[in-house]
Amino acid sequence: MKTPIRVAVTGPAGNIGYSLLFRIASGAMFGADQPVILQLLERNNPDSQKAVKGVMMELDDCAFPLLAGVVNSSDPKAAFRDADVALLVGARPRSKGMERADLLDANAAIFVEQGRALDESASRDVKVLVVGNPCNTNAWIAMKSAPSLPAENFTSMLRLDQNRLMAQIAAKSGKTVNDIVHPAVWGNHSPAMVPDLEHAQICGRPALEGIDRAWYEETLIPTVAKRGSAIIEARGASSAASAASAAIDHIRDWVLGSGDRWVTMGVPSDGSYGVPEGLVFGFPCVTKNGKYEIVKGLELSDFIRARMQKSIAELESERDHVAKLLAK
Ligand code: NAD
Ligand code: LMR
């Protein structure tokens, strides 16, 4: 029997939590022979704690063979103790009519506290995925609040944007997502993101040979970039099952390897492609042996570069806005 992987999950009583925990416990994240211990962190108020107890009862009732334990705490240091993976989901989600920037102040303090707690008690190799929005800047805050952990341990979730891009291309081209390789989404998880088809292939041919450039620029890009709002409009709540599924994809590929496939991850920039060092930015990556690498040496068109500048400017302004919190 393998040693269990300790997975901390924040916001377990929320919508994404409810879609995520059961899949982790069933083996979808690390494979069918890898036990897990879930370490839950929920807010310390009676309603949230009552709800999390209900989720834990349901986890028990699934009798998952791979679930080696579940602990619940409202103390970040306890919940992150020795964690190998930390999924930072818990945050206030955007509701109808609210812009992501409005979330910045509401959520920044959470990620200062959680970054400090990770610094103190998580495994030194902990793989952190920030899902709670605005996820790139929240990941940056957590990273800066955890100076003793390597910066590259902190990532944010753009995999949902890559998955959305692939689904749209598959539908347009009449192919399946399995026929598509090398899609990428650069930048911020916000409407300023840059879905990039310029390197993508469908059935081994350049995607833009079969897909009309005007449709790509004028329809596909805004559809993917504003999909979060479209889901909120349709469901009355932000995406949950698809977000949980993307979180599984992100961590599974980071831990088990992506092979030749590109996987979009929000990672601290190493200065590649002119993205200022340290900004947590969506890049196409490949993963191997538990490490990711940004795909280097791609030719970027002026069209893509100009859009990337918007994401850079947005992330710099978010970073400057929250930087004062770190000084406290
Ligand atoms: P939700 O409101 O249903 O659940 C959030 C949960 O987090 C609640 O149970 C809440 O009590 C808990 N929580 C809040 N503050 C906490 C804290 N400090 N510590 C621990 N738990 C805390 O929201 P949801 O639908 O599950 O969404 C969660 C977050 O994920 C939101 O910020 C949302 O915008 C974001 N999101 C990101 C993506 C992405 O692609 N990056 C996609 C969808 C949603
Ligand atoms: C999403 O992309 O579905 C989420 O980030 C929700 C949102 O606020 O856009």
UniProtKB/TrEMBL annotation:
Catalytic residues as annotated in Swiss-Prot or TrEMBL: H189
Molecular function GO terms recorded: L-malate dehydrogenase (NAD+) activity
Pfam families in UniProt: Ldh_1_C, Ldh_1_N
Binding residue positions for NAD(+): G11, P12, A13, G14, N15, I16, G17, N107, Q114, V131, G132, N133
Gene3D superfamilies on file: Lactate dehydrogenase/glycoside hydrolase, family 4, C-terminal, NAD(P)-binding Rossmann-like Domain
EC number: 1.1.1.37
Reactions this protein catalyses: (S)-malate + NAD(+) = oxaloacetate + NADH + H(+)
Similarity comment: family membership: Belongs to the LDH/MDH superfamily. MDH type 2 family.
Role this protein plays: Catalyzes the reversible oxidation of malate to oxaloacetate.
UniProt xrefs under HAMAP family: Malate_dehydrog_2
Protein name: Malate dehydrogenase
Organism: Sutterella seckii
